[in-house]
Amino acid sequence: MQTKSLSLEHIIRPSSLEKNAPVLFMLHGYGSNEEDLFSFAAELPEEYFVISVRAPYTLEPYGNAWYAINFDAEKGKWSDDVQAIESRDKIANFITEACEAYSVDQNNVTLLGFSQGTILSYAVALSYPEKVNRVIALSGYINENILKEDYTNNDFSALKIYASHGSVDQVIPVDWAAKAPKFLNHLGLLNTYEEFPVGHGVAPQNFYSFKKWLSEN
Fold it and tell me: Residues with Cβ < 8 Å from 68, sequence gap 6 or more?
């Protein structure tokens, strides 16, 4: 279902609750769009108001990105952290907009990201923890370069994170993802980390695991 005109294109699955519904924002990966993770929506608890967001940068011939990635072998692979920071703040502002536009509880916000969407979910939650209660971080990692400079001064007491990664991921090395627990523990943040025997994707057992975590948290 396409919806009200806000600063980022998105689709929604309404909640079974008429007001103060918990809200879950979906952030897709590089080269995808808002339809991708939305396939999970029907399987999530019906009380959740689900908002799947389209990244702002259009790729050719199709798809979208939260920031540019260079794949040129001569220049080496690199990410555009300036664009990533812009997207971080666009998402943070969009969360506020959406919570005002829809009948949802701004104090019960979950981010569910995949790959580049996970990198942005971490960045938003760690930079603006007052806006986010839970993060489901699938097949991504923490990029410290796109966190707000003073993020270590933030209050993370209300933030919980579930992270998972494929043990044979050929796109984002599992070693990058596996650094998250130590990083989050250092911030005193409640977190769960799991690995599954898959590549760059979400295995069925992974889906059921984060769904169980969501219901328990």
Answer: 57, 79, 80, 83
CB 115 within 8 A of CB 140: yes
pLDDT digits (tens, 9 = 90+) for 60-97: 889 999 999 876 655 556 789 999 999 999 999 999 99
The string over 96-135, giving b where at least 16 C-beta atoms fall within 10 Å of a residue's C-beta and e elsewhere, is eebbeebebbeebbbbbbbbbbbbbbbbbbbbbbebbbbb
- Tokens in use for 139? 């097949």
- Ranges of the chain with pLDDT below 50: none
- pLDDT attached to residue 141: 96
Q: What secondary structure does DSSP assign to 100-145, as a single string?
A: HHTTEEEEEEEEEEETHHHHHHHHHHHH-GGG-SEEEEES----GG
Q: How high is the pLDDT of residue 70?
A: 76
> What's the distance, CA 178 to chain centroid?
17
Query: Bridge partners of 50?
Result: 13, 24
